[in-house]
């Protein structure tokens, strides 16, 4: 469980009484936690393959997780296996996303679990790297008696997932049924903050990996900042949207995260009660699918989803950055 916590000398930095602070970028913590621990550690034997169930429970931080010097494959997403396993160097996991990974520890010693991200100085357009150690895996010299060499070395297919995805393939090529635009509106921000926001939008990153403008971000609250989900067809926004579907509908949903004049932000969009496939990112089709319920939409990106509306009820679609959600970035839909 990946998390972060924002602490100062007095402890937890207070939350707003009636509106959220940090409404622009969300509350980035300055202490990174794995399973609630700032110094996570795990002991394994040489040659052991460890299955990690990753969940990002932080308010806003997207992690880029890796194990230095250990081979890793991704096996499953939020609600199901991928069609086939895939080697990865790192896993990008946004708030509310889940991934299952297999990691093999071949050499005795200490293997750091890292969060390695690229940062941008918005005012000067300079990129730099930041690496945090989230924990340590201690690999004993003694070899594991359980030899998973052969199964780990091959990238296995999941025939049940493949068959399941195949049933939806006829929907892949069609035009989107619904389109949502992600945007931000601000009012009454301090003059200085507005000017900085304009300037820092000259240089932008698709993903804000950490709080690069802490003072300005803290001072922005749900009173000045309103995050928006807009229905492209009707112009309706946030809770004025209430789509209606029938059970069994399969809907192609396009989500566009506009690159605007003001400071943009990635949004992990979460859909309640249903499952979806990510069909394409910026018109590039996905070739290895897994059922998901949360998708990260970086700034300037367009993501196409195929939503399987199988679960009756009145549900929400919302950004899972807690401060964006409380700044109104949510909408409703009904499945009858
Ligand atoms: Cu958001």
Key features of this structure:
Immunoglobulin-like; binds copper (II) ion; mainly beta; five-stranded mixed β-sheet; 5 helices; 336 residues; 2 domains; 24 strands
Task: Please tell me about this protein's structure.
- The protein is mostly beta strands.
- It folds into 2 domains: 2-158, Cupredoxins -  blue copper proteins (Immunoglobulin-like); 169-335, Immunoglobulin-like, CATH 2.60.40.
- The chain contains 5 helices and 24 strands.
- The strands form 6 sheets. A 6-stranded mixed sheet has the order 15-14-17-22-19-20, with no helix packed on it.
- Strand 12 (109-121) and strand 13 form a beta hairpin.
- The radius of gyration is 21 Å and the shape is globular.
- The model has no long low-confidence stretch (mean pLDDT 92).
- Bound molecules: copper (II) ion.
- Copper (II) ion binds at residues 227, 265, 267, 319, 321, 324, 329.
User: Which ligands appear in the coordinates?
Assistant: copper (II) ion
> Mind summarizing the main beta sheet?
6 strands, mixed
The coarse silhouette is globular
- What is the radius of gyration? 21 Å
Strand order of the largest sheet: 15-14-17-22-19-20
CATH topology of the largest domain: Immunoglobulin-like
Please write the CATH class name of the largest domain.
Answer: Mainly Beta
- Count of extended strands: 24
Number of domains: 2
Computed structural class: mainly beta
Order of helices and strands: EEEEEEEEEEEEEHHEHHEEEEEEEEEHE
CATH architectural label of the largest domain: Sandwich
- Beta content comes to over 45%
Spans with pLDDT under 50 lasting ≥5 residues? none
Helix content: 10-25%
The separation of the N and C termini measures 35 Å
Mean pLDDT: 92
Q: Quick one: CATH superfamily of the largest domain?
A: Cupredoxins -  blue copper proteins
